[in-house]
Specification:
Helices cover about 75% and strands about 0% of the residues. The C terminus is likely disordered. The protein is built from 10 helices and no strands. It has about 240 residues and is mostly helical. Helix 4 packs antiparallel against helix 6.
Amino acid sequence: MAQLSYRTAFIAAAATYGIVVYKAYRARMRSGSRQAGGPMVIAKDENAQYLAMAIVWLFSRQIPVALLPFAVYSIFHVATYTRSNLIPVIQPSAANKSPQGASPNGKPQPPPSALAETLGRFVKEYYDASMGLVALLELVTWFRLLVSFLTFSRGAIFLTLAYSAFLRARYAQSGFVQSIVRQLTARVDATVASQGTPPIARQVWTTFKGVMSQATELTDLSRYVNTQGARPKKAQ
């Protein structure tokens, strides 16, 4: 039952993000942009990134923590969709029963729904904190995969590489991920700098930071794109 629920959740996530990516692709195509469906444009779309990871998780072994970021996102997606689309359909009669508050064109304006206002306040109040939680959960997931990789677990190589690429893209685009990385790095730096920390622990942490810094720099796609796009001007 748990496995069925796990797979069903990722099927739903893949379907949801697939619809969003398709609609965004159609909108770009209608706009007439030359690079509307280009690989780089799609790769930079965070909805496409989550779609790819949902498909990867769907066909991989179960790792429950991987489901948590999608669960947090789903709460806000449901709240926003309910507020914007369902409530105006469920409570349209309020507009006809309330003669007060006419709009500029003379038509009666519906009074604000209490539920819609509550959902709006919830999204506004908890969005930043929840996105920080998502970023933290994604880092926890990566470390979970790294442990599996170092212990030679089945399928860990592909999952670790795929999720590393996903997290690298999130780091490049998400201020929340960058903030969480800075906070965790500062905390570990402070812990390692204490007098009671063994020298080997300091060395391991310093080596790990150096490797991650080099990997981040080497995988910065904007460097290569800008280098290819910047052609030297011919002398006049």
